[in-house]
Amino acid sequence: MARNKLTVVIPTKNDRDDIADCLIALKKQTYKDFDILVVDGFSRDGTDVIAKRAGATVVYENIGSRAGAMNVALKNIKTQYWASTDADCIPPETWVADIVEALDSSQDNIAGVGGPNYAPKNATFFEKCVDVLFFSKITGQARYGMNKSGVFDTDHNPGCNAGYKTALTKDMWFEEYLPTAEDVVFDYKLRGRGKKILFASWIAMFHHRRKTVRGLFKQLYHYGKGRAIANTHYPALKTRMHPIPSLFVFWLIAGVIASPIKFWAWAIFSFSLIIYLFGISMGCLESTSHYKTPLTNFGAILLAPIAHVAWGLGYIAGYVHELRNR
Q: Which of 44, 171, 189, 307 is most exposed by smallest CB count within 10 Å?
């Protein structure tokens, strides 16, 4: 084992605008006994240069996916523990200490720990609206927006805020064909070995949300696509909630087509639209986001249909992708 106890892994590509803040936050950690490993996808904007200047070890990957970057990281980790985050995250000062303490005190069959992730304190108004949306649990990202107190078993911790025991992940790998949801499958495989994953509410992470409608749409589209591909290869990961955004897409298309033809079709579509808007409004009002205000609630309500369409289209695209590659 290396002298230090934990390695922080940051997979990245062309993230110079974010990674500097992430690395500065890591330098401010109360726990100092850790390494920083940046896995760079041959950035063209100098991301790797910034990382090297900050004292991080930089290795490169040409696979082109977060899963590929994480596999490169696993081959280079020599510490007792490792933790992963993203370039657009800002770890609180006790983040590494909290992960090490949780892993140190955990039972032998505990493979990983993690916690919630929030928009940072300097988030834009749009990011805060997205945060309210994510914590409303109506975007298809229920675990992503988990915000509960205490410590308990969980199926999965997102890769932006997760720590693991190296010995229990030594012969593990991430599925490189997955565009997203690679962390979901990784934790699923760990649990399949009889290991447990813990959620601890105090292991928190500040994570920037997308700053534009286009960015949010693209993110959730890829989340939906990755989940569909993962569900195809690992059917046990499917839930009854996953197809709902795709059904929403079909419902919208059917309503737009049928409404001008028949009055009864227009009436049904209009009534169901009102019910839908009421449902997402209630969901946003019950959000557990720290940034919930009347204005951010309203913003989240406006963003919810966009999120559902994006995730639903991505989910459909994921299944189409799998059908074409059979």
A: 171
